Amino acid sequence: HLKDGNSDIYYWKLFADFAEMERRKNYVINYGKKGEEIIIPKAEVQETPKTKEYRYAREGQGKYRDALLEECPMCPITQITEPELLIASHIKPWSVSDNENRLSSENGLLLSCLYDKMFDLGLITFAEQGEMLISKELHPDNVARIGIKSNFVYPLRYTPLLQMNMEYHRDVVFLRG
Can you tell me the distance from the alpha carbon of 27 to that of 33, in angstroms, rounded to the nearest whole number? Predict the structure, then answer.
């Protein structure tokens, strides 16, 4: 900060690490790209014995997501239909489900990112007929900011297995506060 008579003069000097920028340029070039689109010069790929390419973190996750998209191609809360903005959420968590229920579409909902996070954390759940229940752990100011509509019936598939999984979510995951 410099002073020149009656006016203030501000200046910034950029200190750049050009070697580091060159090393990371492929991260910038590949930002937002998936799978085969990624461009990494062969010289930069470090082979390790455990190197494997996965599209999804868990085996079968792609088919699970596709089944959810086919059954209800939108978030039941926001009505968002862009597949890239939807997350295949497990109702009964993967860690406590058996192999069949882990990949069953009756143990899942497609939710937009914010609602997926709240659902996973137990801050929201759904009653038997689809009304959203909001945890008392979620501050009322945030409920208002998000615009959550409680007592509104959200369009869910009401199958016996989905109801059983949702009951587990209400009883075990949901934070009643």
Answer: 10
* Tokens 């689109």, residue located: 37
**Which has more confidence, 32 or 114?**
114
The string of DSSP letters for 87-147 reads: EEEESS-GGGS-HHHHT-GGGEEEEEHHHHHHHHHTSEEE-TTSBEEE-TTS-HHHHHHHT
Q: What is the pLDDT of residues 43-98, one digit of tens each?
A: 554 554 544 444 445 556 788 999 999 988 999 899 999 999 999 999 999 889 99
Local structure of residue 1 (DSSP, 8 states): -
**30 vs 165 pLDDT, higher one:** 165
The CA distance from 6 to 51, in Å, is 63
CA distance 29 to 135: 42
Q: Which residue(s) pair with 39 in the sheet?
A: none
Helix (H, G, I), strand (E, B) or coil at 19: helix
Burial pattern 125-154, b for ≥16 Cβ within 10 A else e, equals bbeeeeebebbeebeeeebeeeebeeeeeb
